[in-house]
Amino acid sequence: MAQVLQSGLKENFADVQVSVVDCPDLTQDPFRFPVKGICGKPRITDVGGVPYLIPMPKQDKIYNMNAVAKEIELPGAFILGAGAVSSRTLGMNAELMPVVQTESEGKPAVNGSYYSTINPADGTCLQEKYSEKYSDCDFGLLANLYACEGKPGKVIEVRANRRTGQSSLVTSMRKTLEKQYSDQSVGMGGTFVIQKGKAKIHIMPPEFSACPLLTDEDVNKWLKHFEVRAPLICQPVLVSRDPGLDLRVEHTHCFSHHGEGGHYYIDTTPDSVEYLGYFLPAEFLYRIDRPEDTHVVGRE
């Protein structure tokens, strides 16, 4: 798979090096995760979905990371990914960057998550550490999550600099896997750092839309977009192909230690961008609370 990604990413980046390495200690900078690695029974899950957010929000859709860990048959899992906060907890809507060591055998959960909203004072991006204000492990509406035992081990390291194509790093990886494994669904997760450059992100407004969001244009007008600077720690979950489970095939959120974070689209500095990431293919995919009424709006 490393060789597949090496050749595929070269179509989108000038400098690419993909190899299998020992996972670095992720408790250290810049990650500061509560576990050392992303190895051990890797799996991904798609919880809820965009149809619970738009056209109108279903605010009763509240989930819990500890419960998800049990549902994906990995109690005590370390969970990374992209989702939305519980509006019941925060009293508003916001982007969630989950970083959670879930509870196990009497050990309490360690919630290292971040969330981003729009600063009401000046309209700028406002990222905060979840545990500094809240003590639960809830989230709402939707999430795409990578889960594992949080152990050290072998991972796929991706170094990619200077983007020459139109696709983001995550999209380029997903399309490469889709092309190579056309008859399969290959899922991956992990973390990558935008070491140099800037990126385009969005943050959902704290107030849900009072009017139905019926098109991608409606959604983009409702969202607030920002350009944010490196270093950015990103948490991707991707699937090469939806096997018919109404999946969001890619979803990435990012956080930083300088107060910027949200939903990552793509870098905005292709000539100077530098990516360094660590990934693992998932062994299992779990679909939780799949929406019965679905659509394809708002999935970028």
What does this structure look like?
The chain is mostly beta strands. Helices cover 13% and strands 40% of the residues. It has five helices and 19 strands. It has helices spanning 2-9, 65-71, 87-90, 169-180, 216-222; strands spanning 13-22, 43-48, 62-64, 78-84, 95-97, 99-101, 110-111, 114-118, 125-129, 138-148, 154-163, 187-196, 198-203, 224-229, 232-239, 250-255, 262-267, 274-281, 284-288. Strands 2, 3, 4, 5, 6, 7, 8, 9, 10 and 19 form a ten-stranded mixed sheet that branches. β6 and β7 form a beta hairpin. 49% of the residues are buried.
Task: Give the tags.
single chain; 300 residues; mainly beta; ten-stranded mixed β-sheet; nine-stranded antiparallel β-sheet
